[in-house]
Write a structure and sequence with these properties.
27% of the residues are buried. The chain contains eleven helices and 19 strands. It is of the alpha+beta class.
């Protein structure tokens, strides 16, 4: 994992306001799945990734305030009913101030023990349950930030979600059997993260032997299941709230595969007259959604995201020969072969790519993870020629070059001899022609 070298005094993160996030030096900044982070190397050797929302609380989110000596367990409260390792923690004081946190250990690449409640069983197919996977921590923060911003779906509908504050990666490494991770699944997450940061000067790398701890802001209230058991919800109100949450999530383009009443925090105040529950003007309960490790976009929403990527692709293709004003991204360079312009770069799997044109943005669309495992149709019996639809909804034909092979022509005839002597064109010769 890439780190920032700094002097010992730098371990005390400056106490700056939220507007100062943009003033942090670029050397400390990283970006993944649409979220900007300040990356801080902690005194204990761990890595702390602070979001824009977490930056005002930076000094209170340092691991010595809540993680040292397992402070999250000794001073925090483990949440009952949670299938993962989740704590409610009040951090140690920093200049008289504390932070109210939900501390969750990521289960990325672990087996998903998914059980769908019978009340919502029809919303998720058996195939989707079988292929369910936990989000990696940066993917999860990306989806939660996107959902909080509410750019998709009805403009006047908002899903109240926790504030993603920081991701902490302790320095300690563990044996894989202790973490229970699948190497295959973890590599898929690492590849997706690497692909997302293909143009970054500094990239985050997932480490299969280290823990990932997500820090969220705490939402005050009680989960709907608890409220029902205590008789604080009227008969039928729990079921109506469940269906309402499912529908509002769908309208905003999201779903959580294990949606259940324990994930709905009903806003409550002891100062409120009557039952103490907070309600909107229309009388509906105010709730907050928690637990996002199985959060995903709906198929329709994901389709529109891919359509947006396809539009960007065609825009870049239309301007592929135009010189770019911005500096060339790290790890990429311009090349010219047989009078054809290319952008050259390294693929995450170690391969090399030449994208035609002078626009470095195009190379991302041809990274192998975008097209090598998508459904394909073989177009020729005697050679490896395939048609596929990439992950960005781009129709693509790809073929294995036969340069260096001897064409199967009869050398007895002059034409056959000439073809065999010439051989197959190289990929670059073919593109030039």
């Amino acid at each position: 994992m890439g780190v920032v070298e700094q002097d010992p005094a730098a371990s005390r993160i400056p106490r700056l306001g939220v507007d100062a996030f943009d003033q942090v030096e670029r050397a400390h900044k990283v970006r993944a799945f649409g979220v900007d982070y300040v990356h801080w190397r902690c005194d204990d050797g761990g890595d702390l990734y602070l979001t824009r929302l977490g930056w005002p609380l930076a000094s209170r989110l340092l691991p010595e305030r809540w993680h040292a000596d397992r402070g999250y367990a000794t001073h925090g409260t483990r949440l009952s009913g949670a299938t993962g390792t989740v704590y409610h923690v009040l951090t140690r004081e920093d200049h008289g101030k504390t932070a109210d946190l939900l501390v969750k250990f990521s289960r990325v690449a672990q087996e998903v023990p998914l059980v769908i409640a019978t009340s919502i069983g029809g919303a998720v197919s058996a195939e989707e349950i079988a292929h369910a996977r936990f989000n990696d921590p940066f993917e999860e923060f990306g989806l939660v930030m996107e959902m909080r911003q509410g750019g998709f779906g009805p403009w006047d509908l908002r899903i109240h979600a926790q504030r993603p504050l920081a991701i902490y990666v302790p320095a300690q490494e563990h044996e894989l059997w202790r973490l229970g991770r699948s190497v295959y699944q973890f590599q898929k997450h690492a590849g997706a993260l690497e692909s997302d940061q293909a143009q970054a000067d500094r990239a985050i790398e997932l480490d299969i032997r280290r823990d990932y701890v997500l820090l969220y802001g705490w939402i005050k209230g009680f989960d709907a299941q608890h409220m029902a058991q205590e008789g604080l919800l009227k008969p039928g109100e729990l079921e109506r709230l469940t269906q309402r949450v499912l529908e509002e999530l769908r309208l905003k383009g999201y779903r959580v595969l294990d949606t259940k009443p324990r994930h709905f925090i009903v806003r409550h105040s002891h100062r409120r007259a009557g039952d103490g529950m907070l309600r909107a003007r229309d009388g509906k309960l105010l709730y907050g959604l928690v637990d996002y490790e199985l959060l995903q976009r709906t198929d329709y929403h994901q389709g529109l995201v891919r359509a947006g990527a396809r539009m960007r692709y065609w825009h870049h293709q239309a301007h592929r020969e135009e010189a770019q004003a911005a500096a060339m991204p790290s790890g990429r360079c311009a090349a010219r072969l047989f009078n054809v312009n290319y952008i050259f770069g390294q693929a995450p799997n170690g391969g090399r790519i030449w994208a035609v044109g002078r626009n470095p943005e195009l190379l991302d669309f041809f990274l192998p993870d975008r097209w090598r495992r998508t459904p394909r149709v073989k177009l020729a019996l005697g050679s490896a020629v395939y048609r596929t639809r990439t992950r960005d909804s781009i129709f693509l034909v790809y073929r294995m070059s036969r340069v260096g092979e001897r064409p199967a022509m009869d050398p007895y005839y002059e034409q056959g001899r000439r073809v065999r002597e010439h051989g197959y064109n190289s990929p670059f010769e073919e593109f030039a022609i």
